[in-house]
Design brief:
Blueprint (H helix, E strand, L loop, with lengths): L5 H5 L5 H38 L6 H24 L10 H32 L3 H9 L2 H22 L17 H28 L2 H32 L3
Helix pairs in contact: 2-3, 2-8, 3-4, 4-6, 6-7, 7-8
Length: about 240
């Protein structure tokens, strides 16, 4: 029975078998979930921009893209929460904010995809499709606000406790870079969408375009960061196998 937790446990040779098992599981989540979450954030921001500009001719492609990202996030997020797949001592709490935040985001994307697929043509035929979307997005925005506040809470905790500075030294880049830098970078990827998801509901309820624009910038930046991080982790996890 191991008594070490967190960073200390990673230095215990007896801990390595369980560590490597958990990291093989994490490879699926930090890659697929990162790419899907990043794509979802970028898609939401781009769709909002295109609709405000009146440049959307069809919503079918948007529905397909949002639905695909949503299913990946909902399934993987629920699996992580229900199975507690991150099993390292001192790190099980990461199941809650990785899986517990991506699953609701996934279901929101699925709901948006179904709405656009079923009502897209009718929506674009209206004289004010953006106003109709604001009205439809009002109730779901309550959940979005809750997710935004939760993301900000995770960000504050991450900076305070350096919860992302746990990559093993065998992992290229993330394991060899300064821990504070890795922690700051990953923490910001929670903070940016947290700001966007906190401001977006207010923008929806007030129909305030500047707030929506700020949210769109935050979502785009965070989405690009998550996609790059997901792609990077494919490399770093492969690199660990050859150390």
């Amino acid at each position: 029975m191991f008594t070490n937790t967190g960073l200390e446990a990673r230095d215990d040779p007896r801990f390595r078998p369980r560590q490597m098992l958990s990291e093989r599981r994490m490879c699926m989540y930090t890659t697929m979930m990162g790419l899907s979450a990043g794509a979802g954030l970028i898609l939401v921001a781009l769709l909002g921009r295109e609709l405000h500009r009146g440049e959307v001719a069809s919503l079918d492609g948007w529905a397909l893209a949002l639905g695909t990202a949503g299913v990946l996030l909902a399934v993987s997020g629920l699996h992580m929460v229900l199975t507690q797949s991150i099993g390292l001592e001192g790190e099980q709490f990461k199941n809650e904010f990785f899986g517990g935040l991506t699953a609701p985001f996934g279901f929101l994307l699925i709901a948006a995809a179904i709405f656009l697929w079923r009502r897209g043509d009718d929506l674009l035929a209206r004289p004010d499709p953006v106003g109709r979307l604001y009205a439809a997005a009002g109730p779901p925005a309550v959940l979005v606000l809750g997710l935004g506040l939760s993301l900000i809470a995770v960000t504050v905790a991450a900076f305070q406790h350096e919860i992302f500075a746990t990559a093993p030294v065998q992992e290229p880049i993330l394991g060899t870079a300064p821990k504070w830098l890795v922690n700051a970078g990953l923490s910001s990827l929670f903070g940016l969408p947290g700001v966007g998801a906190t401001l977006a509901p207010i923008g929806v309820w007030l129909r305030n375009r500047p707030l929506m624009a700020i949210s769109g910038v935050a979502f785009t930046a965070a989405g690009a960061g998550w996609m790059l991080t997901g792609a990077l982790v494919y490399y770093t996890h492969i690199g660990m196998a050859f150390v």
